[in-house]
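**Protein fold record**
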Amino acid sequence: MRRLPGPRRGDHASVVPAVNQVELHPYLVQSEVRAYGNEHGIATEAWSPLAKGGSLLSEPAVRKLAETYDRTPAQVVLRWHLQRGTIVIPKSVTPSRIAENLDVFGFTLTEADLTALSSLDRDERTGPDPNTFNVA
């Protein structure tokens, strides 16, 4: 992971952030970022937790788990986030999808399921890369 130039050596903040909001979904697992946050008491919040609803929700592994648990692919991915300790606030303007997104507490994914979803990691973003965004 490439780091952008930061403050001068010796400069530092005196307050540790409580939450780090990063793009996070099974196609972009962000293991290093999450580990750093865990080590420093920084909660991770998923930005674009469903990868903008694109190909992730059609992914065969996700669809298979959805069938297994009689849930939607979105519910499976949201449950993956929750079981990994990620703060997740999915966006929707559709009342039925909002209700569906809240109904993720009646089932639990197995460790094998969590691993299968995490193994979909492609380091693939749906938004800008913060390491190169707006860099001249």
